Amino acid sequence: MVSVQTRIAVIGIIVEQTDEVSELNRLLHTYRDYIIGRMGIPYRQRNINIISVAVDAPQDVISALTGKIGRLAGISTKTAYSKVVSD
After folding, report:
1. Would you tell me how many other CB atoms lie within 10 Å of the CB of residue 26?
2. Domain limits, the chain
3. What radius of gyration, in Å, describes the C-alpha atoms of the chain?
4. What is the pLDDT at residue 4?
5. Is the alpha carbon torsion for 22, 62, 54, 37 positive or negative?
6. In terms of Cα–Cα distance, which of 60, 13, 76 is closest to 40?
7. Which of 14, 41, 65, 67 has the most CB atoms less than 10 A away?
8. Residues contacting residue 6 through CB under 8 Å, at least 6 positions apart
9. Inter-CA distances, 15 with 4, 21, 75, Å
10. How many CB atoms neighbour CB 42 within 10 A?
């Protein structure tokens, strides 16, 4: 059996335009096995939504997900990684 190292990360997402929200939700659903939890906050005064997604996944999976999210129009993302690496 091969052990794959995973990383704990928090993906911060800011939705400024809602045109691609259904695609964002589809991506998050596709990667659901890696998602520990997510929290969405509507910031009505600024007409944006702030989403944080905690993941435990291999580095390449996190990079693939954040890369796909980053290509969505009107949506920005940044990722913070834990120093903890698990087997």
Report:
1. 12
2. 6-86
3. 13
4. 82
5. positive
6. 13
7. 65
8. 56, 57, 58, 85, 86, 87
9. 32, 8, 5
10. 12
CATH no. for 6-86: 3.30.70.1150
Task: Choose among 54, 57, 48, 56: nearest CA to 76.
Answer: 48
- Which two tokens mark 17? 């335009």
Tell me, what amino acid is at 62? Answer: I
Give the angle subtended at the CA of 42 by the CAs of 36 and 44, to the nearest 5°: 170
The pLDDT, as a whole number, for residue 3 is 72
Tens digit of each residue's pLDDT (9 = 90 or more) over 37-84 = 999 999 999 999 999 999 999 999 999 999 999 999 999 999 999 987
* Region of residue 74 (left: phi > 0; alpha: psi -120 to 50; beta: else): left
